[in-house]
Amino acid sequence: MRRFRAVYQEVKTTVLPHILPEFRSRRCRSDEKAYLLRNQVPVRLMIGKKQHVPDILYIERMSYNGATPWGRAALESDMLQNPKSLYYVLYEGHMPIAFLGARLDGKDIHITNLAVVPEFQQIGAATLLLQVLKGFADEKGAASISLEVRVSNHRAKALYTKMGFLPERIKQHYYHGDGEDALEMVWPLKEKQSEEKEDVHATHV
Description:
- By secondary structure, the chain is an alpha+beta fold.
- Helix content is about 30%, strand content about 30%.
- It is built from 6 helices and 8 strands.
- The chain has helices at about 1-15, 20-25, 55-65, 70-80, 125-140, 155-165, and strands at about 30-35, 40-45, 85-90, 95-105, 110-115, 145-150, 165-170, 180-190.
- The chain has an 8-stranded mixed beta sheet, sandwiched between helices.
- Strand 5 (about 110-115), helix 5 and strand 6 (about 145-150) form a beta-alpha-beta unit.
- The longest helix is centred in the middle third of the chain and has 16 residues, at about 125-140.
- It is globular and about 40 Å long.
């Protein structure tokens, strides 16, 4: 955790100096929700907007060994020009720790990206984001949530399976760069909505 804080402070002063102070001062408490992760760390969830792009890029760099699969231009375009896009950004204090991007496609909500910085993995951050997205899907009457995951990412596949995702098909050579295959997974929701009364806004995940 100390390493994470130190790296964030370095990135904040070198990469985001002209953006982050304004972003902090303009935060609106009305669009935040508070939660506790499994280790009792308090976090805040916000709907992602253009001013959150630097923090999303930071999360990507921390999660993907310095890479940003979705760059600034792609993120801003998706947020500003696609009315069906949705982003959640999770913070511990003022530090961004995770985000989820999704698009409403008919009756399916497709997750385009889900990333958690290493120091906050395995303590419920991704689960929280998925639960909140499911709440949104239920409100919109969506029938399913879908995503692609690397076939080698066994930890992520285990999490998605636990949440209710089912394997659909392999997409060969899906990922740019290394050409790794992707497993498409779908979380069917429609038939469960009458059975499940899960409170997605519960404090613990």
